[in-house]
Design goal:
This protein has 407 residues and is α+β, with helices and mostly antiparallel strands. It contains 8 helices and 19 strands. 25% of the residues lie in helices and 26% in strands.
């Protein structure tokens, strides 16, 4: 990505909103982490002249736009054709005004002129189109309701659908959003970064084992989602891709980011098939989750449970598109004082779940009294595509050598 110009926007403090928006060190840490990826030799290795840092700037938005325009005009000629502009924002996204305009908050944002003092996506799009109309533009938005931004970059309706993504794309827009237009983004539980940027940087720095030499923005989005699910569970915000301007092809499908895990190989086609099988199985296994809890309304209604009594229920959720079989759950009492108990749960269809109720009237010999014992800890093993996997109590996935091996 030697023809790349990068811009970092956003804020970690909003002095004009002392009560509504608290300062967020996680936003500063996320911006610093992304800047490090842009400039490190193990990242994009961009020179200082190719990076504009406007994070936590005290400047009014109109002056930030002026700096952005000057930066792009001064540096795009030395890069020649095919300039790619990468803009990263981290901070708060909110809807302001009677028209509920979607805005990205800046440090200078203030009432009663929130719209005029925030980064409006229409204004940012106009600056980019006026300054470098031929450039490709990638936006990475780490903020609440980021998916609302895409429609504001919408190109004309007569998009050229005949252009294939494999062709060289000279222009276009793609937006990587931390969350949909309806969902908030989140800070990691440790408070040291946002969930999205932390997962994104891990993806960019570690790459995809067995993947191609370069990854597309769509690849990055999916891998980032997997990292977030692995670290923070399936309820973590789901990133999404928007490609509002595809008149010159789908920029999000272009292989642009170096895959740090890429290893050239001269393996046979049979071994490459094994690699693909392993990759698909591991991706599916990462979307299987097990936990214990109280019965939800579906379980109570399906099994006719007495609403006045408590039960422990073991759930196994298969959010992948592949069947898992030979499912076994191993239970330990939460206080670690009980011996373990194994439940054979058979199989789970794609995008379905199964459950096992620890009934007080049908208790395992070494089971749990739902009225007395703490929540059981659940470990689970299962098979997917002939491979056996193990999930620990935090739903981390481990491949177990089973009926099929790559060697």
């Amino acid at each position: 990505m030697e023809n790349t110009l990068a811009v970092v926007l956003g804020a970690s403090e909003w002095p004009h909103y002392p009560n509504q928006f608290n300062s967020a060190s996680a936003f500063k840490a996320s911006a610093d982490g992304f800047r490090a990826y842009l400039s490190d030799q193990d990242g994009l290795d961009l020179p200082e002249s190719s990076l504009l840092w406007l994070f936590d700037s005290d400047l009014e938005i109109v002056f930030q736009y002026d700096l952005l325009s000057s930066f792009l005009r001064e540096n795009s000629p030395r890069l020649g054709g095919g300039t790619l502009v990468l803009i990263y924002y981290v901070g708060h996204g909110a809807f302001f005004g009677s028209n509920r305009s979607y805005c990205l908050l800046a440090r200078a944002t203030r009432p009663p002129v929130e719209e005029e003092t925030s980064i409006r996506l229409e204004g940012l799009a106009n600056v980019l189109r006026a300054t470098i109309p031929q450039a490709r533009r990638l936006l990475v938005l780490d903020c609440c309701f980021a998916g609302a931004a895409a429609r504001l970059f919408q190109g004309p309706v007569d998009q050229a659908s005949s252009v294939k993504s494999a062709e060289i794309i000279e222009r276009g827009v793609a937006v990587l959003c931390a969350a949909s237009a309806r969902d908030p983004a989140e800070v990691a539980p440790q408070g040291n970064a946002t969930i999205f940027t932390q997962s994104l940087i891990e993806t960019l720095r570690e790459g995809e084992r067995g993947g191609p030499e370069s990854l597309s923005l769509r690849d990055i989005c999916e891998l980032t989602r997997r990292v977030a699910v692995r670290r923070y569970g399936r309820d973590s915000p789901r990133p999404e891709i928007q490609s509002p301007d595809q008149r010159h092809g789908d920029l999000a499908a272009m292989p642009l980011f170096p895959n740090r895990a890429y290893e050239p190989s001269e393996r046979t086609s049979e071994n490459r098939d094994d690699d693909l099988r392993l990759e698909l199985a591991e991706a599916s296994a990462s979307n299987v989750f097990a936990h214990a809890g109280r019965p939800d309304s579906e379980v109570r209604e399906h099994d006719g449970l007495d609403p006045t009594e408590d039960y422990w229920v073991v759930y196994v959720n298969n959010y992948s598109s592949r069947l898992i079989s030979n499912v076994e759950a191993v239970l330990l009492a939460g206080d670690e004082s009980e011996t373990e108990h194994t439940l054979a749960l058979d199989y789970v269809e794609p995008n379905q779940r199964i459950w096992y109720i620890l009934r007080p009237d049908v208790r395992p010999t070494s089971g749990f009294d739902p009225n007395l014992d703490p929540e059981p800890v659940v470990f689970v093993t299962f098979e997917c595509m002939g491979l056996k996997f193990y999930k620990d109590e935090e739903n981390n996935t481990q491949l177990l050598r089973g009926s099929w091996s790559r060697e």
